């Protein structure tokens, strides 16, 4: 049964076009991917809530997996003992400040301050995690006298102490309200060293493993929650998280991934405009076909409140918040979402918005304070009183720098891969299951459904012997992609379809205007041939997204890598072949062999036979992020061979595969009782 829409009247190809072309002279491609690349500064990161709860359940599961993979935490790293050290700091009216160091990963230290209420309590206390964001000096922030007076005069702050250190003000007030508060450093801020906050994590092998600042900071937040809930007297059912700006990003990312927070308040970050400008807020695949509002929505239906200011969140009350209210209402919790913008103030987490947060947590963490809650004056702590390092307590020499930490992470992940290697049937099935979300995120799968694309037949032309050339556009409905395709239909009954993925695209089916000898023989035997111009080849336009030379995730966070786009184009061709109702074969030729092999993996059990040329290709050999086959995360999942094991165990021929690809696929086929792939040397 044909499941696509024929959207154009059949015509005859113009003779001057050539048999292997679709575009008429002067005609431009309808493919929208060449028009512009997405950037973090776009203004249309809109969220459209699904029509029903079941649709959101499916979408949220896929999106949560996308976020986990993008930030480099799929699978979850092993949780090592924290080895937490807590030392006394200073005592204040109603609370005390302690100094904390623990290991979120072996050799990587997280530093911060613990604010503890000093009043008596008859039961367990709530806890609040406070990531600080990109404020100068982090948790050591103190502003100069001129800035302090400006904040007081504008009404943004009510006390000199709050104006001087809004970060301390937040923690002190929450502690006085009965919360155990942990205020921890972002990497490279305050006591966190020796890893710099900006400028690192750009090596090719690092990107190929999805390691980065966002991975590290998200994991630090997760381990900070571990630290909090393990403290004696903390109520694990009443956990809040709040931060502003970059701390707001950490807040809603943590809320999306960790089920333990029960209420959150991401300040001046969630909106449909700028999505986060720091390296610690951008990771490959994170915001492909999504944005901060939808990612924050993963916290639904639990209580979440937002604040906006005269920055990129200024429109939150009209763009973002209404859609979140629709979602929360659909999920039966309309009172659990709130938000307000104060456009009279610039980018901030000032006393006005902090007091909104105090009242939100007072209600949803059941703090029992009299409302409205007003922030009280407090006594500032000095940098020396807050710092975890001093003459007697120096940073240990065993603390890992970036290079040492990356080596340790790679070693741990390689060990995990060895444990998951498909050496028996159980492990083979488990590995394929493990790769299901990976093929969606890295490879752009699954195979498109018949209602997710349409086919426009541009024209037809007869071939000698009664065969026919059909020129088509294969158009995806979700992103405006239009892939040029030629389908050579045999004169006799169609028995099988061979999809050809070739660097020359559809031209590869012809030689001097006639089908090649192999194609002609196939047509005579009842085989149809489908070839497409993958993005950037043939009549397909070049991709607009160019890899950012300084920090490639600035590109890949919003745009799929070129290899992923090409795999998606190949999947579109396979879906069109599927809809003919005949067995589908696949050939990957020349430099497009890896594309074909990955498309086979993402296409489920569709491909009945495949032959791919690989020329020893391995992602581990790539050193340039601008390489057309560069795929962030590929090494994390076993390189080309490991990813290819998401596919079926149908007949497969590999021409000049790497040792890695051969090892994985032979083991995978053998474990599932199938014939081993045929290996050709040329």
What can you see in these coordinates?
The chain is an alpha/beta fold. It has two domains: 265 residues, Alpha/Beta hydrolase fold, catalytic domain (Rossmann fold, 3-Layer(aba) Sandwich), CATH 3.40.50; 350 residues, Rossmann fold (3-Layer(aba) Sandwich), CATH 3.40.50.1820. It contains 20 helices and 20 strands. α13 packs across α20 and α17 packs across α18.
Descriptive terms for the model:
single chain; 682 residues; Rossmann fold; 2 domains; 20 helices; elongated; disordered N terminus
Secondary-structure topology with pairs:
Blueprint: H1 53-70, E1 85-92, E2 95-105, E3 108-117, E4 125-129, H2 145-154, H3 160-164, H4 166-176, E5 180-184, H5 204-207, H6 213-230, E6 234-244, H7 246-257, E7 263-267, H8 292-297, E8 304-309, H9 321-330, E9 337-342, H10 351-364, H11 383-386, H12 402-420, H13 425-434, H14 436-441, E10 453-462, E11 468-476, E12 482-489, E13 496-501, E14 510-511, E15 514-515, H15 517-524, E16 527-532, H16 553-556, H17 562-578, E17 584-588, H18 593-602, E18 607-613, H19 639-644, E19 652-655, H20 659-671, E20 678-680
Parallel strand pairs: 4-5, 4-6, 6-7, 7-8, 8-9, 13-16, 13-17, 17-18, 18-19, 19-20
Antiparallel strand pairs: 1-2, 2-3, 3-5, 10-11, 11-12, 12-16, 14-15
Helix pairs in contact: 13-20, 17-18
């Amino acid at each position: 049964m044909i499941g696509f829409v024929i959207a154009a009247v059949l015509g005859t190809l113009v003779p001057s076009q050539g048999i292997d072309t679709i575009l008429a002279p002067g005609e431009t491609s309808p493919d929208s991917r060449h028009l512009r690349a997405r950037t973090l500064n776009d203004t249309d990161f809109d969220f459209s809530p699904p029509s029903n709860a079941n649709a959101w359940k499916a979408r949220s599961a896929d999106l949560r997996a996308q976020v986990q993979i993008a930030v480099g935490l799929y699978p979850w790293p092993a949780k090592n003992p924290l080895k937490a050290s807590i030392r006394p700091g200073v005592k204040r009216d109603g609370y005390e400040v302690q100094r904390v160091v623990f290991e979120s990963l072996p050799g990587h230290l997280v530093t911060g301050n613990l604010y503890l209420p000093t009043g008596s309590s008859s039961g367990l206390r709530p806890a609040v995690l406070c990531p600080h964001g990109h404020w100068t000096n982090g948790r050591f922030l103190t502003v100069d006298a001129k800035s302090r007076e400006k904040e007081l005069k504008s009404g943004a702050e009510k006390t000199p102490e709050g104006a001087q250190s809004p970060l301390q003000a937040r923690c002190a007030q929450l502690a006085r309200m009965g919360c155990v508060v942990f205020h921890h450093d972002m990497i490279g801020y305050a006591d966190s060293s020796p890893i710099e906050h900006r400028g690192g994590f750009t090596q090719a092998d690092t990107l190929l493993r999805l390691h980065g600042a966002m991975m590290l900071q998200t994991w630090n937040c997760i381990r900070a929650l571990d630290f909090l809930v393990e403290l004696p007297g903390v109520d694990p059912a009443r956990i809040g998280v709040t931060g502003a700006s970059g701390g707001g990003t950490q807040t809603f990312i943590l809320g999306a991934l960790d089920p333990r927070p029960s209420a959150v308040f991401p300040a001046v970050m969630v909106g449909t405009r700028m999505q986060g400008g720091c390296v610690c807020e951008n990771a490959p695949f994170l915001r492909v076909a999504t944005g901060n509002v939808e990612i924050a929505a993963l916290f639904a239906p639990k209580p979440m409140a937002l604040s906006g200011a005269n920055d990129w969140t200024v429109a939150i009350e009209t763009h973002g918040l209404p859609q979140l209210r629709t979602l929360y209402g659909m999920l039966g919790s309309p009172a659990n979402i709130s938000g307000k913008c104060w456009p009279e103030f610039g980018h901030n987490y000032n006393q006005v918005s902090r007091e909104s947060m105090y009242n939100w947590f007072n209600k949803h963490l059941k703090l029992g304070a009299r409302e409205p809650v007003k922030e009280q004056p407090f006594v500032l702590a000095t940098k020396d009183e807050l710092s975890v390092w001093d003459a007697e307590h120096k940073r240990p020499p065993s603390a890992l720098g970036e290079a040492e930490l990356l080596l340790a992470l790679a070693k741990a992940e390689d060990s995990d891969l060895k444990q998951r290697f498909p050496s028996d049937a159980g492990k083979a099935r488990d590995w394929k299951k493990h790769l299901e979300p990976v093929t969606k995120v890295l490879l752009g799968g699954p195979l498109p459904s018949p209602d997710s694309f349409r086919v426009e037949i541009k024209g037809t032309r007869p071939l000698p012997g009664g065969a026919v050339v059909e020129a088509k556009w294969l158009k995806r409905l979700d992103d405006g992609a239009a892939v040029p395709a030629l389908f050579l239909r045999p004169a006799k009954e169609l028995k099988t379809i061979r999809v050809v993925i070739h660097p020359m695209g559809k031209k590869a089916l012809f030689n001097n205007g006639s089908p090649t000898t192999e194609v002609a023989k196939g047509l005579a035997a009842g085989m149809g041939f489908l070839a497409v111009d993958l993005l950037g080849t043939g009549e397909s336009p070049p991709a607009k997204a160019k890899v950012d030379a300084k920090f490639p995730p600035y590109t890949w966070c919003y745009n799929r890598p070129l290899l992923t786009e090409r795999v998606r184009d190949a999947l579109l061709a396979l879906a069109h072949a599927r809809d003919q109702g005949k067995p589908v074969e696949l050939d990957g030729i020349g430099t497009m062999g890896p594309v074909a092999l990955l498309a086979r993996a993402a296409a489920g059990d569709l491909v009945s036979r495949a032959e791919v040329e690989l020329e020893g290709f391995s992602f581990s050999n790539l050193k340039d992020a601008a390489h057309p086959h560069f795929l962030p995360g590929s090494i994390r999942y076993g390189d080309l061979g490991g990813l290819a094991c998401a596919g079926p165990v149908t007949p497969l021929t590999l021409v000049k595969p790497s040792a890695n690809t051969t090892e994985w696929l032979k083991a995978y086929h053998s474990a599932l009782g199938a014939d081993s792939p045929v290996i050709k040397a040329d």
